[in-house]
Every structure is written in structure tokens, then in C-alpha cells.
Amino acid sequence: MTALNELTIAGALAGLDKGDFTSVELTEAHIRAMELTRPLNAFITETPEKALTQAAASDARRRAGRAGLLDGIPIAVKDLFCTEGVPTTAGSHILDGFKPPYESTVTANLWRAGAAMLGKTNLDEFAMGSSNLTSYHGPVENPWHRKGDNRKLVPGGSSGGSAAAVAARAAMGATGTDTGGSIRQPASFCGLVGLKPTYGRCSRWGIVAFASSLDQAGPMTRIVEDAALMLTAMAGHDPKDSTSADLPVPDYRAGLDAGVRGLKIGVPKEYRVPGLPAEIDRLWREGVAWLVEAGAEAREISLPHTKYALPTYYIIAPAEASSNLARYDGVRFGLRVPGQSLDELYERTRAAGFGAEVKRRILIGTYVLSAGYYDAYYKKAQSLRTLIARDFARAFEEVDVVLTPSTPSAAFAAGEASDDPVSMYLNDVFTVTVNLAGLPGLSVPAGLSADGLPLGLQLIGRAFDEATILRAGRAIERAAAFTARPDGMAWF
């Protein structure tokens, strides 16, 4: 029989329904895998007792004929989601000792659907990064390696711990958050499916905020069907979140096999950026061919304001971060470094509690919001954001889905791109437009680089039309037949 921690969510649900194994047995297998993969540093906090308690309750529900959508499935939770009574650090020293007295809406939805929590995964501090090198709790290692090269590679960020845990078979799926690509980029680097839903599809209540108008929760899984299952459980209107959309949540799994015949696929010419590696361009063209062979029609489209997306994002996101992070002052929760005055307490706590990247973004955000620069930077960035969203609206008058690469490269080693902040920011070149426009985006593993590392293709859809990008993602998944697994998994 296939090892229990090798099963997909869909496969595990079928096995649980048939009685091939119990949720407790499934969870125990993943707890063992979580222990064996500790060298990856994917988890900040492990919660095996909680997971086993939830699994036992799931088995009881299944015996009583009351199993939920994800009953018995052990998952990991990015340590940006507040979990009642379980430490939530956001990867930062400044939240040391913080145990939320409440549960985030997304995780509450998952527990209601029957999932079990294995633990809280590592992330770039306050979700600020593209490599998972900025966490106070240390870097996460990608379970993948280049052929013939044992150097440690980054898993991508900020949801790198979630990506590494799922890729290493230490969790069946995981939650992530995506502000500028933080689900899709690590999914691409680790050979996973990563779904960033439409802004407002999943509640932000109880998620530690980075940039409130850009943040969105989503699932990270090994196959498209699993992402559809997780999103169905995670999504829904939440009156506690004023940005939550009051719309029905489809059964995303039900429409996966509808195919792409008749769909129009947009290929944006502006995404062929200078210096795009030949192997990524080649995979992109192959992805277009796969969809055409499956019955879709490809059209070149124009998204003319794409070239302004990165600078626009790196003005708006830090501006919102500088406002959101003002609450961390050593007074109400988390780290406190005493001072001779209230101002000194603030200064010492924030100096000790925040890492270099967080401080950098707070300074950028404070600068662009200052009286002398608000009109020149922040206001202009908001105008450009409107134009970027308008580009997509016009494109979706002609096409149903947009296809692009997920990232401009495969996973890189620590130090190869992380010494230059601007180079790091360029990792988001294909993903930030989706957040600025509030649209859904899906990264699907589609091939391997010359070094044997996973590469992803990204599908972008109309607002609240996750069903169509999941259908198209399923078509790419079938055509790509991506079955590669990390070679750095000698522990199994």
C-alpha cells in the first residue's frame, strides 16, 4: 500500500471512506514525517497532540455518518493565522509569547470541515520576503536540490514553510497567504499547486496583516483537486471582515473535469520580460500548446501597465505595512523591552523585535506616506493600480483565462539573490499584478529546469471565477504529468 503520507487529500478521503485506515493512523504518519523533516525548519510550532485529538474526533464523526468535507485530513497552518491558545509569531521576535484568545475565520472553517492541525509553519517575517530567509526562527530549506549540487535552496516566500512541509510529505496541504505572490512563488519553487483566491473570497479576520488591500489566504497542495477541496472549505462570507465578499461558495471540485474546450486563453506580450530564461519561455509556450490541444483557443493580449506593477506594489505594500505594524509597540502583547520613557520603550521594543527587512519596508512606507511625498509616490501608485486593474478588465472582455510563467527562475540558493533587496523584489514580477487587481491566480507545476528543479505556470482569472482557473489548471496538470518529487527526501 502507498505510504499514508504520500497520499493526496482526495486519495486519503477515499481511503478513509472505504475504511482502509483511520484518521488517527493518517495523522500519526504525518507526525512521524514532520519529526523526520525537522532539518528543513518548516515548522515553528508543532501541535501533534492537538492533531491527534482532532483526528480521533474525526473518526468518531465518520463512524456516525457525519463526516465533513475534509474530515480526518492533517494539514499545516502558516504562522500568520491566529490559532486559539497556540503561539502565533508571524515569524517575528516581536510576537514572542503571543497566544491568541481567538481563532482566525479561515482556520475555524477548516476545523469545522474536519481538518486536523499538525502545527504552525515558518514564514518570512510578517510575510515580507520571497525566500523565507527573513524569519526570526531561521531559514527554511527547500526539500529539492539541483542535480549534482547539495547546496541548500530557498523554498520561496513568504509561505515557504507551508510549501516545504507539503513538498516533503509532512502535511497533506497547508494554508498560505499571498500579498504579492507569497503562495504562488513558493508553490512554483517546491513543485506544488498554489492558489491565491480573489480578494474577499477568504476572510482576512484573524490573519496578521501585512498589506490589508492585498493580503489573501489560500491553499497549497500537491494536486489541483486538493486545492479545490481546501478552497471550498476555507472560503465564505465573514461579517467580521468588511472586505469579505457576500457570495456563495461553489463546489470547486465538482467542475474540475469540465475541460477547457471553447475557452479563450490570453497570452500577455508584456510578460516576456528582458532576460527571461529560455527554459521558462519554452515551458510557457508548451503550456499554451497543451491548452490548445485540449480545445482552447490562444490569443495574444496586451496588459500595457504591467511594467509599472513592481514599483506600484513596492509603494503600496510598504505604505500599508507601516500603518499595520504600528500596533506592535511592546505595550499590549508580545515582546517588551523596558525603557526610561514610553517613547524609549517603543524604540527599544521595535528595534529589538523587528528584523532588517521589516524595518526597511516600514521606512519605505513611512517615507511614501509623508507629507512631502504622498502625492508624488503613494497617490500616483494608487492611480497606476487602477490602470493595471483596468488592463485586466479589458483583457477579460476577450479571453477567459490568462496564462503566464509563475516565476522568472527556479529556486535559488541562499545568498545568490538575497544580498540585493531589489533582485529579491524582482521575484514577484509575474505575480504582483494579480494582487493589485484583486484577481485569482493559480500556480501549477508543469516541468523541470535543466538543473532538475520544478517550474510552474500561472493562470489568472476573472474576479470570483476560481472555478475556471482550476479547470484550466487541471488540464495543464494532466498534460504536464508532473510526477517528480524532491531528491532531498532520504529520510523516507
What this model shows, in words?
The chain is of the alpha/beta class and 492 residues long. The protein has helices spanning 9-18, 23-36, 48-63, 105-112, 160-167, 184-190, 224-234, 278-293, 309-324, 342-353, 356-369, 374-395, 421-425, 432-437, 466-480; strands at 43-46, 74-78, 116-121, 174-178, 193-196, 216-221, 264-268, 297-301, 401-405, 441-448, 454-461. The chain is built from 15 helices and 11 strands. The mean pLDDT is 95. An 8-stranded mixed β-sheet has the order 4-6-5-10-11-9-7-8, with helices on both faces. α2 (23-36) packs antiparallel against α3 (48-63), α5 packs parallel to α6 (184-190) and α7 runs antiparallel to α15. It is globular. α4 links the parallel β2 and β3 (116-121). It has a domain at 4-263: Alpha-Beta Complex (Amidase signature (AS) enzymes), CATH 3.90.1300.
State the shape. globular
Question: How many helical elements?
Answer: 15
CATH class designation of the domain at 4-263: Alpha Beta
Order of helices and strands: HHEHEHEHEHEEHEHEHHHHEHHEEH
What is the strand tally? 11
Task: Record the SSE blueprint.
Elements: H1 9-18, H2 23-36, E1 43-46, H3 48-63, E2 74-78, H4 105-112, E3 116-121, H5 160-167, E4 174-178, H6 184-190, E5 193-196, E6 216-221, H7 224-234, E7 264-268, H8 278-293, E8 297-301, H9 309-324, H10 342-353, H11 356-369, H12 374-395, E9 401-405, H13 421-425, H14 432-437, E10 441-448, E11 454-461, H15 466-480
Parallel strand pairs: 2-3, 7-8, 7-9
Antiparallel strand pairs: 1-3, 4-6, 5-6, 5-10, 9-11, 10-11
